[in-house]
Amino acid sequence: AISGAKTHSIACIPADGIGPEVIDAGVEVLKTLSNASGSFKLDFENYDWSSETYKKTGKYIPDGGLESLKKHDAILFGAVGAPDVPDHISLWGLRLAICQPFQQYANVRPTRILRGTESPLRKASPGDLDWVIIRENSEGEYAGQGGRSHVGQPWETSTEVSIFTRHCVERLIRFAFQTAQSRPRKHLTVVTKSNAQRNGMVMWDEIAASVAKDFPEVTVEKMLVDAMTCRMVLQPQSLDTIVATNLHADILSDLAAALAGSIGIAPTSNLDPTRQNPSMFEPIHGSAFDITGKGVANPVGTFWTAAEMMKWLGEEEAAEKLMQAVEKVCENGVLTRDLGGKAGTKEVTEAVSAEIRRIY
Ligand code: ATP
Ligand code: MG
């Protein structure tokens, strides 16, 4: 044991599909990192909540489950979703059932082209694309408000109501300005659709303009979400920090992940910026049943996720070294199939672990 070293307690929820494979890989690399650095300890506890549990018990999270999660410093999440459970049930049953009560209102998605990997954009190389997308994670289009009447009739009517509250929009936009301020370029793009949606979206623009006054160093611009998709493809260098609603940022961040090379690389953090509850970290990819159990899942998304988690826990140096190791391994051509290589999950994991030991 390392005396005097800080211990971070991590809850692991591997869940479905390739989730357990990538979380195993992530835990292995994190253990290597902790041993190599000697400056912090990690304590892992596994929670086997999944679509299997749901099919057996009718619940994803057992009674008292959330309470037991609360004692951890962070949550490392795999992926949820199974072919025989409707997506809206699995999503609300596990991920959102944690995000919402834990007030993880800021969903943060860094995107860049890692050294040794390629973007589908012909002219983009590492450095040309370096973004953080901040997604509203507590309300908006995914507030779950609405209903259906006259079900099955030709005149069936359904509503899916977007909820925007000044409180939630303002805290998110403030967080986005803080993020922009902490990055070298100090540039924030506020995305809305305020030409067509004249209530909530106009309120977003107004709140952004008023919060901007508290951040004089940050340059801020407004974009409509449709124009934003073109801008991301045609002028990726012109963007840095991006803030958008739950729905818009959901879509933009999938585009971002694809532009950066593969959905298997990208991380996401569900943060409670007040730090009253543990925050949750996960690769953006889903359960990917088509490749489950084959040993070919790309663990890089989980490694980058682990680095984001360590940064949130105050271990900046370890986070940087972990990303250095990941990029070195990519440069050395140890890549999974989604990145055009031949390596399996295990090979990439061992290569990253070896690289971490070499760096320290
Ligand atoms: P969900 O419904 O939860 O989004 P999904 O099964 O649709 O899950 P995604 O994660 O969205 O799967 O990914 C789409 C496809 O991308 C997968 O079917 C898989 O082929 C590929 N993919 C996703 N993640 C990875 C990964 N980590 N490594 C390699 N390929 C991946
Ligand atoms: Mg999917």
Automatic annotation (TrEMBL):
<protein>
    <recommendedName>
        <fullName>D-malate dehydrogenase (decarboxylating)</fullName>
        <ecNumber>1.1.1.83</ecNumber>
    </recommendedName>
</protein>
<keyword id="KW-0560">Oxidoreductase</keyword>
<comment type="similarity">
    <text>Belongs to the isocitrate and isopropylmalate dehydrogenases family.</text>
</comment>
<feature type="domain" description="Isopropylmalate dehydrogenase-like">
    <location>
        <begin position="9"/>
        <end position="352"/>
    </location>
</feature>
<dbReference type="InterPro" id="IPR024084">
    <property type="entry name" value="IsoPropMal-DH-like_dom"/>
</dbReference>
<keyword id="KW-0464">Manganese</keyword>
<dbReference type="InterPro" id="IPR011829">
    <property type="entry name" value="TTC_DH"/>
</dbReference>
<keyword id="KW-0460">Magnesium</keyword>
<keyword id="KW-0520">NAD</keyword>
<dbReference type="InterPro" id="IPR050501">
    <property type="entry name" value="ICDH/IPMDH"/>
</dbReference>
<dbReference type="Pfam" id="PF00180">
    <property type="entry name" value="Iso_dh"/>
</dbReference>
<dbReference type="InterPro" id="IPR019818">
    <property type="entry name" value="IsoCit/isopropylmalate_DH_CS"/>
</dbReference>
<keyword id="KW-0479">Metal-binding</keyword>
